[in-house]
């Protein structure tokens, strides 16, 4: 039976597919070498990541490094949901009951369209090992994204640092749009690279996100 986190991810992908019908689901490839979605009309990939609005989304190392060999650009659609206490609410339920509860009660509060250069910059600074020391991962927190959007400073390793500088993004030509209400039913924000993500920017302009 799929894990609760897997089902939450599937619910997010379903919400995304319904809101943005231009994207095609992929088979994700061997070893996760292919992102979750492809937009064939505009020519770019999208990897879907979701986390609770009070916590974070989580990136595995392969979800950052395995996409570099793809010919088309990759961006990340990072969503934050409102389904609290998931394990307590779903732990004793069957697979079908879990899916039904999520379909009825899990909503996306906000979604960010994030460039791969931004995700890589965050990952290189924030990665850590799991308790067994076998898997590299990164907690992708909403406050990291908001810190980049608002160009703010925070404390890292006892020192005050600007997050744009800390993640190595100061010299990038970022296209930034703060969270705003959209017709999709949830707020959306944008942190894309003006050159690398030009195709995605064209798409977001056409669908009125930018």
Describe this structure in words.
The chain has 210 residues and is α+β, with helices and mostly antiparallel strands. It has one domain. Helix content is 32%, strand content 31%. The chain has eight helices and twelve strands. The protein has helices at residues 4-19, 62-65, 86-90, 95-105, 116-126, 142-149, 163-166, 198-206; strands at residues 24-25, 37-39, 44-52, 56-60, 74-81, 108-115, 128-129, 136-141, 153-156, 159-162, 174-180, 187-193. The strands form three sheets. It has a seven-stranded mixed β-sheet with strand order 1-2-3-5-6-12-11, sandwiched between helices. The protein has a three-stranded antiparallel β-sheet with strand order 4-8-7. A two-stranded antiparallel sheet has the order 9-10. Strand 2 (37-39) and strand 3 form a beta hairpin. Helix 1 crosses helix 4. The longest helix is centred in the first third of the chain and has 16 residues, at 4-19. The radius of gyration is 17 Å and the shape is globular. The N and C termini lie far apart (39 Å). The mean pLDDT is 93.
